[in-house]
Task: inverse folding
């Protein structure tokens, strides 16, 4: 039972890192970006290709995946996304679905549609077991590694948003673009950076998660729903909301698939709909503001 | 008769070119017999797109889960044919009724929240049904699909033939009938209130329109029509599979509607023709990667602007609100 809880937490942490960039673009900039999964896939494929073709070690691949997808996100933000910030939501949905279709087909074309496997280094492969019987806790080393990385990132993000100058600029730009610009904040630059970092985190998540979630060209479509659930359920005004939503979702999904495999993903979707009908703006909404 | 009534009536009248268009459509299976099956498909997809237009174009509800009703109608009709009786018209009615009931149940989910919430909830409903159809394999055949659906002859005398001609006429007839019905609906006072809700929900509420009730009614109606499209699909192909519920169906139908133009019933029909022909042509050139071109088309469509795409001479001039 503890093992399931542990796996659920690792899975949830992973989802959080994948989705947190989306929480920012979607919640703060009010842009419905269904193509977020494509950046995650980009990170995953960067890792796989670097490791398979060039023999780069796994640990070095992770920052490279981050940088690669951040660059990709930055370029796309500058060229394609920015003109769409003030378009209706329908346009944004169509645009990002179009991007997903293109990403799926291109990856299929260049890399092939087979599932890619990541060769983990030896020291991440083991498994530690504590206790016995019902309360046995089995911790895969790789999952432990994921939890550690994700926890560090979460703390870092929270620090950046809450205590640094960049964080306050971002919050100001989001609350009122015009006033922020009037105060001398370069709103475009802030948004560009945020978008790039969000995409980079997605890429890092994709690289970390390739082993757990599986990586093939349908990745953005398959996990799009999960990212969206995390963001929609968690509410988009803080980091805590999506984090708790991701953990809840991860545990519910792992436990549901373990105890009642017959129902599959049914539990997660029903949970989401119930929560959204109960609280349409998500679980955690910042009071005041707009 | 006062002026608003008069203007609504004028809008709902048939233009002279419309009967010609429909006659052409009905003649098409004879004129190009080898393409009867694609005509059938176009008619079905057009019906599906028109039903989405009712909620997206006329009421302004963004939905990513319209395939839920399509699949529901499809599976209901197919199961009915397999387990109860093979008559197509009764099956169609069963499909419509089932989807309508589902729509009525789901209509409570779209009344609250923002566009994002609605997107998520509609998407979620579609996914739940997909998961159900997958897991209840004793009933639906699971991932293999529901096989062995044999349709009886239409009205007791027209057999569904291999060339698909009967199927095409059947679908076109249903499309025409529902099209005329929906046309009456959108040009009625009820339709006018829908547009008022789309344009400004708060103002609509302020002048006394019961917004939630109207939303529920139109969502249910659209679900029923989508169910009819799904039923036609499984009846004419004799097969129901998980594909009916998949996300790409909801995305495709939205794309179709946007190509053709929202808030205009013929938009769905025009979009269906363009999309299906484009898909046919592209997939014969690059069978595996045609989604790339569809994606590119979407991106360009949004970046250039939906209104400007049909007016190429405005592409390079600056201006507009951008």
Result:
């Amino acid at each position: 039972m503890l093992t399931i809880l542990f796996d659920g937490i690792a899975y949830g942490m992973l989802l959080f890192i994948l989705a947190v960039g989306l929480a920012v673009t979607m919640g703060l900039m009010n842009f419905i970006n269904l193509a977020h999964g494509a950046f995650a896939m980009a990170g995953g494929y960067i890792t796989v290709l670097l490791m398979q073709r060039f023999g780069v070690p796994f640990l070095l691949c992770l920052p490279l995946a981050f940088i690669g997808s951040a660059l990709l996100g930055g370029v796309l933000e500058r060229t394609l996304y920015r003109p769409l910030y003030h378009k209706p939501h329908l346009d944004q949905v169509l645009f990002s679905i179009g991007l997903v279709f293109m990403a799926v087909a291109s990856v299929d074309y260049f890399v092939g549609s087979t599932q890619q496997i990541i060769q983990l280094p030896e020291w991440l492969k083991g498994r530690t077991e504590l206790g016995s019987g019902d309360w046995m806790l089995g911790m895969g080393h790789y999952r432990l590694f994921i939890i550690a990385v994700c926890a560090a990132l979460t703390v870092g993000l929270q620090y950046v948003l809450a205590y640094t100058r960049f964080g306050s600029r971002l919050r100001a730009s989001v609350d009122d673009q015009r006033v922020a610009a009037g105060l001398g904040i370069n709103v475009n630059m802030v948004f560009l950076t945020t978008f790039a970092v969000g995409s980079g985190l997605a890429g890092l998540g994709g690289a970390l998660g390739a082993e757990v979630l599986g990586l093939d060209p349908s990745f953005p479509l398959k996990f799009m729903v999960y990212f969206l659930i995390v963001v929609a359920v968690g509410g988009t005004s803080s980091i805590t909301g999506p984090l708790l939503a991701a953990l809840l979702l991860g545990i519910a999904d792992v436990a549901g698939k373990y105890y009642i495999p017959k129902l599959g993903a049914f539990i997660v979707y029903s949970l989401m709909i119930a929560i959204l009908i109960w609280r349409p703006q998500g679980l955690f909404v910042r009071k005041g503001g707009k | 008769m006062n002026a608003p009534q008069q203007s609504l009536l004028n809008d709902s009248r048939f233009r002279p070119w419309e009967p010609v268009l429909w006659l052409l459509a009905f003649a098409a299976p004879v004129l190009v017999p080898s393409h009867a099956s694609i005509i059938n498909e176009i008619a079905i997809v057009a019906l599906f797109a028109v039903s989405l237009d009712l909620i997206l174009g006329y009421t302004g509800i963004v939905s990513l889960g319209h395939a839920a009703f399509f699949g529901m109608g499809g599976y209901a009709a197919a199961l009915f044919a397999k387990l109860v009786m093979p008559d197509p018209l009764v099956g169609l009615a069963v499909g419509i009724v089932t989807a309508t009931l589902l729509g009525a149940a789901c209509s409570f989910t779209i009344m609250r929240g923002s566009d994002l919430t609605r997107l998520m909830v509609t998407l979620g409903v579609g996914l739940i049904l997909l998961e159900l159809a997958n897991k209840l394999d004793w009933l639906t055949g699971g991932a293999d699909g529901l096989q062995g659906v044999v349709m009886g002859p239409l009205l007791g005398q027209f057999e569904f033939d291999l060339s698909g001609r009967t199927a095409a006429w059947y679908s076109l007839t249903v499309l025409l009938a529902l099209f005329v019905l929906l046309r009456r609906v959108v040009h009625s006072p009820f339709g006018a209130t829908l547009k008022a809700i789309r344009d400004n929900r708060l103002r609509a509420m302020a002048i006394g329109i019961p917004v939630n009730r109207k939303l529920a009614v139109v969502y249910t109606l659209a679900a029923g029509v989508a169910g009819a499209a799904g039923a036609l699909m499984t009846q004419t192909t004799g097969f129901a599979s998980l594909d009916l519920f998949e996300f790409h169906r909801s995305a495709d139908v939205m794309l179709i509607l946007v190509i053709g133009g929202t808030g205009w019933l013929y938009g769905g029909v025009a979009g269906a023709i363009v999309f299906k022909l484009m898909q046919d042509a592209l997939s014969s050139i690059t069978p595996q990667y045609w989604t790339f071109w569809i994606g590119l088309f979407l991106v360009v469509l949004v970046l250039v602007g939906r209104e400007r795409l049909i007016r190429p001479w405005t592409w390079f001039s600056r201006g507009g609100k951008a």
About this structure: Strands of chain A lie at 127-130, 137-140. The mean pLDDT of chain A is 82. The longest helix of chain A spans residues 2-28. Chain A has eleven helices and two strands.
